[in-house]
Structures are given as structure tokens and as C-alpha cells.
User: Fold this.
Amino acid sequence: MGTSRSVVFLLLLTLFLPPLAEGSWRISPTRIDLDPRSRSGNVAIVNEGEEIRHFAVEAAAWSQDEEGNDLYEPTEELVFFPRRLSVPPGEERVVRAGVRVPPADRERAYRLYIQEDAPPRMDGQTGVAIVLRFGVPVYVRPASQQVAGEISARIENGEARLSIANRGNVHFRIRNVSLEGRGQGGEAIFSESLAGGTVLSGAARLYSLPLPAEICSRLREIAIEAETDRTPFRTTVAVDEAGCRP
Assistant:
């Protein structure tokens, strides 16, 4: 007598943008901003599908290392309710979140993870089940906010190496980093655009851009601008022959 088997692989996708698949589910708003006067906030899960969906909620403290990599660890500072919930089709449910600790001199950052349960397995079913998890950023701002950023750059081993550091006490989001290489007469030799990302207070984001020898040898300087959601940061770095050598 044969035995039917289910072979289903689960693929967990952690999103930092809201899931927008038609007929699925979405989150609103996509971030929570707290401060000394507003200690709690809400996130709505909207089920736009035709079946009931089940979710689990978790929290993590969010920091970044010296190279700008995101670090997460469990935390009791961010409280939320409920921890599990079900959303019928065409309806929405609310997750409420707040902080136990008072605001500090530097902004605190967290992620509120909302994960959809894996679909039930059917006998004989094979394939891949995609499970979505969305990380809602939660920022707890200080009473007095200072926005400050600094770009440091050098040309070394035939590469432009950049560091965009957050010297303020609140985060900023880099939308785009543009570089323009200029020749001896100030003429544009090349231009390049680099992707951005969130830089938490006290952290930095690093970039490295290879410079082909035939281009690097013609450069006098590279102008750099980081466009952010708060204010742009700019600098110019000189280029010399030694820096162009690999």
C-alpha cells in the first residue's frame, strides 16, 4: 500500500518594502515614528485576498556596525499587541506598538516583523511555498533632533572609496549617491550613480567604485553628492597618479 508524501520547501522573504502582490496583503503605514509626546503607534494589516490569512509578530532592536551592515537582536523595549492575529478576506486588523523606555539623546531604532504563516500542506503536494515577512521600521526620536552627515573619500588602488557617516542623532535615508569625475580643465570625464539606504545615528555606509586606468589617469578630482531625505551632503576628492595605481 503506497504512502502519499508532501514535499514543500518554504522560502522566507524578509521585505523592507511592503508586499504589494495583487490579491495578497499589505501594511499601512510602512513605518512608525515615535517621540516624547507620541509613545505608541499602529500598523494595519489589510487582507486583499480571498482567503483568511494568519500572522505572527515579533520585535527586534536595530543597529548598524562600522561598515553599515544591519544588526538585529531580540528586545523587550518595544512592546506590541497582538502577537498573533488572523485577518479575514477584505478586512484589516491593527497591531499596536509602543516603547517601554524613555527617549534618549540619540534616536533608537527597531523593527516590528509581521510574518504570514506558511500555507497548510496538502497530501501529495510538491513545490515551493513563499512566506513573506515585512520589517516595519520603528524610530524613537529624541526631544531635540540634529541632522548631520559627512562624506569622506579617497582614491586608492584604482578605486574611489567613500564613507557617508551619520554625525547627527537621528537617522537619514540616502536616496542616491552621484559621482562626477572632472578633468584638468573642469570638464566632465565620467558620472556614476550608486544606490542608497538608511544610515542610523552614529553609523556609516561604505562604497567602493573601481576606476578604469584609462579614465582615472585623466581625472583631477571627483565631486560627490549624497541626496538624502533630509539634506544633501557634498564633498570633492582630488585624484593623483598614485591613487590610480592598482
User: Anything to note?
Assistant: The two ends are 68 Å apart (CA to CA).
